[in-house]
Design a protein that fits this description.
With 505 residues, the chain is α/β, with parallel strands linked by helices. The protein has two domains: 2-220, Rossmann fold (3-Layer(aba) Sandwich), CATH 3.40.50.10260; 228-503, Ribokinase (UDP-N-acetylmuramoyl-L-alanine:D-glutamate ligase, 3-Layer(aba) Sandwich). It contains 16 helices and 18 strands. Strands 1-9-18-17-16-15-14-13-10-11-12 form an eleven-stranded mixed sheet, sandwiched between helices. The chain has a seven-stranded parallel sheet with strand order 4-3-2-5-6-7-8, with helices on one face. Helix 14 (434-447) crosses helix 15 and helix 15 crosses helix 16. The longest helix is centred in the C-terminal third of the chain and has 22 residues, at 482-503.
Length: 505
């Protein structure tokens, strides 16, 4: 499991480790890790590479200069652009600068940065600011970042791309800019901001270098990066002695007139992800049957018993009086419950519904996108996106629920404050019906007896991984439709179960 720590805790871990180590040790380790990452990125041996290193005024700049010294020693031609006065470098960074000069690194004052785009670089290393930036980059630094972003060579960011908030994944400051890295090597521990909001667009491929800091310096984590290991205990093969009742029942409630496709997508996802029986309860007129998935049973929602199935409420539900009556019944049912789409919008409008969610016997699973989350918390969508981790935690606490805050780097949160950041997925998921498919996956796993937390983690991971697999095959991201995700999710889920069974032999 890859733990995620906020910047405040990272600083405490670093300071505690520094007190137990000889001076300069962590910078040497960071420089070595950065050098090794750079060598993995370079397409050719280092003796033929020309590398530009951006060194800022703090220890992030020192890490970059240490890497520059190592790469120059390995035979690369290294130019270090110093975005600071030499006299302002901290002690360890000044040591790294001297070492860089001893190994032949060429120094370029920041005032000459306009010359860099005339050269061919095999790699740029960003050591401008790391996690230390608190205000928007402006003036010459802004122009420098824009110049780097216009280059076509790989860019390796050290710790975090300069200009990106490591906790939130938001570009710092109004009208801010940040380095767009192809790769990031982050030090000590992973950071949420590299994987959510703008983070994936700026951080590129992320790896972690712990700098050999011993475990006792780390407090217990409260956040993790999503991975199949987090739900592996429930990837169980099916017994031969099974029947459809062994795998539970899902009822999808929604499908007001003009929106019948939403519950159909959720129901198709549920049946393809292993629910034994799936019904669709339509708000208005029920379909006779689904010709694309005739295994689904179509009913009028008002005629259904809500006590015997996992309920997925909201896809295409609408906001009518009939929809409100159905949601009230749903919230009163003593069943596992997934709340999506218009169910969330109705809850945001009705304080009575909010109280029902908070006090359910079985806590609900809620799957809002940022605008739905904003309505539930009474803030703007921009406020949600400004700190997605905090917003997901606030929703989970307020509604005593497991919350999946959808978007780039979906956040899964529960009421005790624990969060998981999901790194699978891509822009293909930004299409109509994608969220309905996710809610159906959640319902199917709950129906098969998965605990709520692990069901949420698995559903989000599978949903994103299906989009990644399709894009890797050349299908999308442009024009990929929600229905195309379903068979790929099924294949991935079965593959995980097989792999888990084989590993246990």
């Amino acid at each position: 499991m890859r733990a995620i720590y906020p910047v405040a805790e990272i600083r405490t871990i670093e300071q505690t480790a520094l007190r137990a180590l000889p001076p300069y040790t962590l910078m040497q380790r960071a420089g070595h890790a950065a050098e090794q990452a750079a060598l993995r990125i370079l397409p050719d041996p280092p003796h033929s590479a020309r590398i530009l290193v951006l060194a800022g005024p703090g220890n992030n700049g020192g890490d970059a200069l240490e890497a520059a010294a190592n790469l120059s020693k390995a035979g690369a031609e290294v130019v270090a652009l110093l975005a600071t006065e030499l006299s302002q470098l901290p002690h360890d960074a000044a040591n790294a600068l001297r070492r860089a000069q001893q190994h032949g690194v060429q120094l370029m004052p920041a005032a000459q940065f306009s010359e860099i785009d005339s050269a061919h670089w095999a790699l740029v290393i960003d050591g401008l600011f790391g996690i230390g930036l608190t205000r928007a980059l402006d003036g010459e630094l802004r122009n420098l970042v824009l110049t780097i972003n216009a280059m076509r060579c790989p860019v390796l960011a050290l710790d975090v791309p300069s200009g990106l908030d490591a906790d939130t994944g938001v570009v710092v400051g109004p009208n801010g800019v940040a380095i767009k890295a192809s790769h990031t090597i982050t030090f000590i521990a992973d950071k949420a901001g590299l994987h959510t909001c703008d983070g994936p667009d700026y951080a590129g491929r992320v790896e972690v270098a712990s700098l050999a800091i011993t475990d006792h310096h780390f407090p217990p984590p409260h956040a993790w990066l999503n991975a199949s290991t987090l739900f592996a205990d429930y990837l169980l093969p099916r017994r031969r002695n099974s029947h459809k009742g062994s795998f539970g029942e899902v009822t999808v409630i929604g499908g007001a007139e003009g929106m019948i496709g939403a519950p159909v997508l959720a129901a198709r996802a549920a049946v393809n992800c292993g629910a034994g029986r799936v019904l669709i309860g339509f708000v208005d007129h029920a379909m006779a049957y689904d010709s694309g998935q005739p295994e689904l049973m179509c009913r009028h929602a008002a005629d259904l018993d809500f006590t015997s199935a996992v309920l997925v409420a909201g896809p295409g539900l609408g906001l009518s009086d009939a929809a409100q009556a159905l949601l009230s019944r749903t919230l009163d049912a003593r069943s596992w419950l997934v709340l999506d789409a218009d169910a969330l919008n109705l809850i945001a409008r009705e304080p009575v519904f909010q109280q029902k969610v908070m006090h359910r016997q079985h806590t609900a699973m809620m799957t809002p996108h940022p605008l739905e989350a904003a309505r539930l918390l009474g803030v703007s969508a921009a406020a949600i996106q400004a700190d997605r981790v905090a917003a997901a935690r606030a929703l989970a606490r307020r509604f005593n629920a497991v919350v999946i805050l959808k978007g780039a780097g979906s956040i899964i949160a529960r009421a005790n404050g624990e969060v998981v950041v999901n790194a699978t997925g891509n822009p293909a998921l930004a299409s109509a019906g994608s969220g309905d498919v996710l809610s159906g996956i959640c319902g199917a796993l709950l129906a098969q007896g998965w605990p709520q937390w692990q069901a949420a983690l698995a559903a989000v991971w599978l949903h994103g991984s299906a989009a990644d697999q399709l894009v890797a095959q050349g299908i999308g991201p442009i024009g990929l439709t929600a229905g195309e995700l379903i068979p790929v999710v099924r294949s991935l889920l079965n593959g995980l179960v097989r792999d888990a069974a084989n590993a246990g032999r």
